[in-house]
TrEMBL record:
The keyword Transport applies. This is Nuclear envelope protein. The keyword Nucleotide-binding does not apply. Keywords: Membrane, mRNA transport, Nuclear pore complex, Nucleus, Protein transport, Translocation, Transmembrane, Transmembrane helix, Transport. It comes from Penicillium egyptiacum. It holds the Pfam family Ndc1_Nup. One of its GO terms (molecular function) is spindle pole body-nuclear membrane anchor activity. It is a multi-pass membrane protein. One of its GO terms (cellular component) is nuclear pore transmembrane ring. It is found in: Nucleus membrane; Nucleus, Nuclear pore complex. Its main location: nucleus. InterPro entries: Nucleoporin_prot_Ndc1/Nup.
């Protein structure tokens, strides 16, 4: 019998995303149709809205402006939020290509929208680039379209900044914290599309309109100072290809444009419509792409010839977004599709191992990565120096005969044997001199005096006399000022001048807060793997519990002890790292509560995303122990393993025996 060809999960997911892309595009096309009616000529009411006329042409052309945003979103789409030790670290994670794409597509979208708006306007709007004079007069530039293009370009730049700062490229997938009292057991409680749009659409439109009006007000100052000269010269260059202009047209006649303030109010309408088209395009794309991996209520791989093979290819995918959707689908299967669960347990002769063993490996790898990242943060890998090239041979230097032995590099605190020969006595004398130099103070009297003098003059303008005296009398402060190797300094002991700088907007991007550093370590960088972790824990525990009734061969129970130990170790390690001082507070985190307020410090160590991971680990471990309660001794979970598992799951007393 010929083997069934497995369809890669990437293709299954791409087909589903194409359908959702079409749905989002249809709603954006409706928005373009409404804008086309708003900017059309009002001479005929019928032709103003009739879709099979000029209104339909305007709609299709305006839709290109929204389509460019979809292209941008597809190229930079990701699920997890951006993680880094600081805001500056997040900025560094952006590549030059991402920034150029974001600004480029928004500027192109604004330019295209402006062209269609000018083309659709009536002659009374006076939006032609050149004012055609009388036959005996030469034409002049019309500043109205120049300002309109400049205003929309400025608006595009502002929108691009918002796009990057608020991470519009992220597909926000809701993740519910695990709770035994919740009626909805879904890990990702995605609301119905229509209900969600009804609650979000109006605030998005309001925010977009307010942003457009704010930028329009700012353009009254920015346009004459920054944009006007460049826009005028560029427009003149294009217009000279078709018309002849006098030399006096090379520059505007006055600093303040003559079109202000009347034309300023006329540009508010198209500016608001442009931003609304961007906002709705981003909203529709995020809503439809972020839906559950289901097709007609069933997992995406249900209709595949080899459902388990397609799902396993997604779990092993290198592309993060494919792996996230595959684990999400596995989580849904483990929760509510018993037929697919049975198929996973029954398929034992698959290439590469049974379906269950491959699922187990994929889920445990995600959980083990938490421990790996925590260990790497505690014990960072040393920087290795590049090895010298073997091809180049060093020249042999002829030296004089040695007068003494090399300096000893053993333990300098152990008693050395007494020297007997003259050569050994000379070596001991030289060695003792070298030891005395190495054990001397790190600050010589001359260097300390110079630093005191420099610090005295520099601190007179910044510190009070009491603070200056305190710092001058503490050698540890000098080591901090000169970049010493000490790493035990706390934010509460920081120089007040430096603390003031870090609290200011200038220093904010460089602060490494506890929440940022903990999230970056636990969830990974540059994007959070929160969804991956929660779905992996949920899938693993649900499948193990379901195997009690659905595993016909009884082979899954052999993996229960290793799964319990993994969940126990990860839970205890993460809890100690996050809540019990495993991660030190960085000296730039000046808003972290002082050590004199332990309750506030404990509250500051509660990071929402990390707490979701801990709740998933504890909840999954507790459910696993409760489900296998009658068989714990038989499968080998006794003694220390059981005690640690109960401690990690938050189970006390004799609740689990």
């Amino acid at each position: 019998m010929a083997s069934v060809q497995t369809r890669p999960y990437r293709r299954v997911l791409t087909s589903a995303l194409h359908r959702r892309f079409v749905h989002a595009s249809a709603l954006s096309l409706l928005v373009s149709y409404i804008i086309a009616i708003a900017i059309g000529e009002k001479s005929s009411f019928f032709w103003l809205w009739f879709p099979f006329g000029s209104c339909g042409v305007r709609t299709a052309l305006l839709f290109i402006s929204s389509l460019t945003i979809f292209v941008l979103r597809v190229s930079q789409m990701h699920i997890g939020s951006r993680t880094a030790n600081s805001s500056f670290g997040t900025l560094k994670s952006f590549t030059l290509l991402q920034i150029a794409q974001t600004f480029g597509w928004y500027i192109f979208s604004a330019w295209w929208f402006t062209v269609i708006y000018v083309w659709s306007s009536s002659s009374d709007s006076n939006l032609e680039l050149v004012k055609r004079a009388r036959p005996h007069e030469r034409p002049t530039l019309n500043e109205r379209p120049i300002y309109l293009h400049s205003f929309h370009a400025f608006l595009a730049c502002v929108q691009a900044v918002f796009h990057l700062y608020y991470d519009y490229d992220r597909i926000a997938v809701p993740i519910a914290e695990r709770s035994s009292k919740a009626d909805d057991e879904r890990t990702h409680p995605v609301p119905p599309t229509s209900k969600y749009l009804q609650g979000v659409l109006l605030p998005e439109l309001t925010a977009g309109a307010l942003r457009s009006v704010t930028v329009a007000a700012a353009s009254l100052v920015i346009y004459p100072i920054i944009f006007r000269t460049f826009a005028w010269s560029w427009s003149l260059y294009v217009a000279k290809l078709f018309w002849s202009f006098p030399r006096s047209a090379a520059e505007p006649h006055s600093f303040v444009p003559s079109i202000f303030p009347y034309f300023f109010f006329k540009t508010l309408g198209p500016g608001v419509m442009l931003v609304l088209s961007w906002q709705t395009a981003n909203l529709f794309y995020s809503v439809f792409i972020g839906k559950e991996p289901l097709k007609r209520g069933q997992p995406l791989t249900t209709e595949a010839k080899d459902p388990n093979g397609s799902l396993l290819s997604g779990l092993k995918a290198k592309k993060e977004i494919v792996k996230i959707f595959a684990l999400w689908e596995l989580s849904l299967i483990s929760q509510r599709v018993p037929d697919r669960r049975k198929a996973i347990f029954n398929e034992i002769d698959r290439e590469g191992g049974s379906a269950w063993s491959q699922v187990l490996a994929c889920t445990t790898d995600v959980i083990k990565a938490i421990n790996t990242r925590i260990e790497e943060s505690k014990n960072p890998a040393p920087v290795t120096k590049p090895l010298p090239q073997a091809g180049k041979s060093e020249p042999v230097v002829q030296t004089l005969p040695r007068l003494s032995e090399p300096i000893k590099d053993g333990n300098i605190f152990t008693a050395a044997p007494k020297a007997t020969s003259r050569q050994d006595k000379f070596g001991d004398a030289f060695s003792s001199a070298a030891k005395s130099i190495g054990q001397s103070e790190d600050w010589t009297p001359t260097a300390r005096a110079r630093v005191r003098d420099v610090f005295d003059r520099a601190s007179s303008a910044m510190l009070s006399p009491e603070q200056k005296q305190k710092y001058l009398g503490s050698p540890q402060k000098f080591k901090l000022l000169t970049g010493g190797p000490s790493t035990t300094h706390k934010p509460e002991d920081m120089n007040p001048v430096l603390a003031h700088v870090l609290r200011s907007p200038v220093g904010q991007p460089f602060r490494q807060t506890y929440a940022q550093r903990l999230s970056a370590t636990v969830l990974g960088t540059p994007e959070s793997s929160l969804s991956l972790i929660v779905d992996a824990v949920e899938s693993l525990t649900r499948l193990l519990i379901a195997s009690l009734a659905e595993d016909p061969y009884g082979k899954v129970q052999a993996d229960v002890p290793s799964a319990v130990r993994l969940l126990t170790q990860t839970t205890l390690t993460l809890d100690a790292f996050a809540h019990q001082g495993g991660l030190d507070v960085h000296w730039t985190d000046i808003n972290f509560p002082p050590s004199t307020d332990p309750q506030a410090q404990a509250a500051a160590r509660l990071v929402p995303d990390v707490e979701i991971v801990l709740a998933a680990l504890r909840g999954g471990l507790k459910d696993l122990l409760m489900a296998f309660r009658p068989y714990l001794r038989d499968i080998g979970i006794t003694g220390k393993d059981l005690r640690l598992a109960k401690e990690a799951a938050g189970i006390g007393g004799e609740e689990v025996l």
